[in-house]
Write a structure and sequence with these properties.
Helices cover about 15% and strands about 45% of the residues. It has 3 helices and 11 strands. The strands form 2 sheets. Strands 3-4-5-6-7-8-9-11 form an 8-stranded antiparallel β-barrel. The longest helix is centred in the first third of the chain and has 27 residues, at about 5-30. The termini are far apart. About 20% of the residues are buried.
Length: about 280
């Protein structure tokens, strides 16, 4: 019986394809998912080589982002900056919040450098002393203005003060008393972002013009005292100041070919502003 060449070629092709088909079916059965519901949702399992990147179309589900290690695998490179890491098993991993800045960070204490102040206090008159020429005397109110400069102004502060004072109510009067003095001060302060409290001691000396018996009498002036108060910063570098102080002003002068002095212990109030 003569066999047609066409049918002979077809038979040989079927014989060669059958083993390949058997292996493909076996592989498909091996990759099949046992759970029917899960199999309908995900399809057949696909085995990929080590160098093959998974795709959503190939596996039928979400793709593991690059740089994220999955369970049982070696750690992968960190994800790109600004991209939160993803845990394939547990879901997105929340980014760790940045550490909160400490309360008051960036706030620095402020201290005075230069200022202009006004002080009012009680003084004494020549010829109004008792007994030996030292002690209680008749009151003579004085006003004064001062230019304060602090070359050292940290927790420790050191100041230089130039002061001009005049008999109260007689600033422009020719028969009023006035003085010019230079003082130094040393104290402590607590620098704060808004309020800087301070306490300081000061001492100084200068010239005091007395007008007595229709003539000018040159005399000496010196003082020492204590101030306690605070600087309130109302701008980046500007402040107002208030201080309550103890003051002992002293007037020394020549009397009957001898040198004597009068003084008084008094309280003073000083107001100021500056930088």
């Amino acid at each position: 019986m003569r066999v047609s060449p066409f049918f002979l070629s077809l038979a040989l092709s079927i014989a060669a394809w059958a083993p390949v088909r058997s292996r493909a079916v076996a592989a498909a059965d091996a990759d099949a998912i046992d759970d029917p519901k899960l199999a309908r949702r995900l399809g057949s399992r696909v085995t990929l080589g080590a160098s093959t990147a998974p795709t959503a179309a190939a596996v039928g589900g979400p793709v593991t982002p690059a740089g994220v290690a999955t369970s049982g695998s070696a750690a992968a490179p960190a994800s790109a900056p600004g991209v939160p890491a993803v845990d394939v098993v547990g879901g997105p991993v929340s980014a760790q919040p940045a550490a909160a800045a400490p309360s008051g960070a960036g706030e620095t204490g402020r201290t005075p450098t230069i200022g202009l102040g006004y002080r009012r206090f009680s003084f004494v008159q020549i010829g109004a002393t008792t007994g030996s020429g030292a002690g209680a005397a008749a009151s003579e109110p004085f006003d004064s203005i001062a230019l304060d400069f602090y070359p050292i102004s940290r927790t420790l502060r050191f100041g230089l003060t130039t002061q001009y004072g005049w008999q109260s109510g007689r600033f422009d009067s020719r028969d009023g008393d006035y003085f010019i003095a230079q003082s130094v001060s040393l104290g402590v302060q607590h620098p704060g972002p808004t309020i800087t409290p301070f306490a300081e001691a000061f001492a100084g000396a200068g010239y005091l013009r007395r007008f007595q018996f229709d003539r000018t009498i040159p005399t000496a002036y010196w003082q020492f005292g204590l101030d306690a108060g605070a600087n309130l910063f109302v701008a980046e570098h500007g402040y107002v100041s208030l201080a309550l102080g103890y003051l002992r002003p002293v007037n020394g002068f020549a009397k009957m070919q001898s040198f004597t002095s009068v003084y008084v212990d008094t309280w003073s109030l000083k107001l100021g502003f500056g930088l």
